[in-house]
């Protein structure tokens, strides 16, 4: 090969050739080592939710994250108040940089990128009062890096907003024909942040009937207000609803009470009854089950009587007792010998009327 041809080939391939013919191999540029420059935690919402679960968002700034052609592995973990950071932490979520991963050719290294993440938090977490210290650790492991880099940040997690001593007086509210009845609402708001009361109302759980109250607190964060209910007010189950905002979060707290017509101080009761299966072979069992109510709520721990009437007869026969659970549900397994009808009964009390369930027919083959 002539010397001129060799020089042209070297230009095409990117290799420099010495006059003596020895080639120098090109060197891939070195990328800077990645570093976790900053962690910003949204402390405006770093508090325990009153119920259920929520999350605390954060943003991590990573300098020079790309060492090779792939996006770095990013992991976040955290420790709650009182937990040792020498032990394994709880997993926090982070947004993967998959949009620049596995690209060809390799991406130009970015000077910095922001990675979003969130820390899960639930109502069962500490603190229950005041403020607790949590720790977040973010680790970045770029492709080709000798070792991962990490950064930790300690932040405050404040206690959940709480409403205590919620009360409606009187309970039950007895409506009187031609008169108005004063109803008083009270509670105490335990504040651990910038909580604001946005709405307070007495509302029916069975209709769209409601009474709006004021939203102001006393100097000690207690609340007192009242309204008057007339005879046209819906009866049944009601609740005091307290709506509160804290930063970007919104919560509602409720306290149940009853509204009734005067002259009828007793609550009505109701029983449902089902049979499964409704067709059985002789000697086989069927399950009788249902629920007992006092007013619109479950009649907790109520003892019911079970009756059977053989097909073609007129007399009901007492079979036995069956107890309801704390949620008003009951169940009884029986092995019927004859075709017939089943029902349950609830005896009356000084505060509640008695009732009979619906009748279920069970066919015995």
Describe what you observe in this structure:
By secondary structure, the chain is mainly β. It has three domains: 35-159, Immunoglobulin-like (Sandwich), CATH 2.60.40; 162-261, Macroglobulin (MG2) domain (Immunoglobulin-like, Sandwich), CATH 2.60.40; 269-364, SOR catalytic domain (Immunoglobulin-like), CATH 2.60.40.730. It is 3% helix and 51% strand. It has one helix at 3-13, and strands spanning 16-17, 23-24, 35-41, 53-63, 73-79, 90-94, 112-122, 131-141, 149-158, 162-169, 173-175, 181-190, 196-204, 210-213, 222-229, 236-246, 249-261, 269-271, 274-276, 279-280, 286-294, 297-298, 303-310, 317-323, 329-334, 340-346, 355-356, 360-364. The strands form six sheets. A seven-stranded antiparallel beta sheet has the order 3-4-7-6-5-8-9, with no helix packed on it. Strands 20, 23, 24, 26, 27 and 28 form a six-stranded mixed beta sheet that branches. It starts with a helix and ends with a strand. Mean pLDDT is 84; it is low at 1-32 and 99-106.
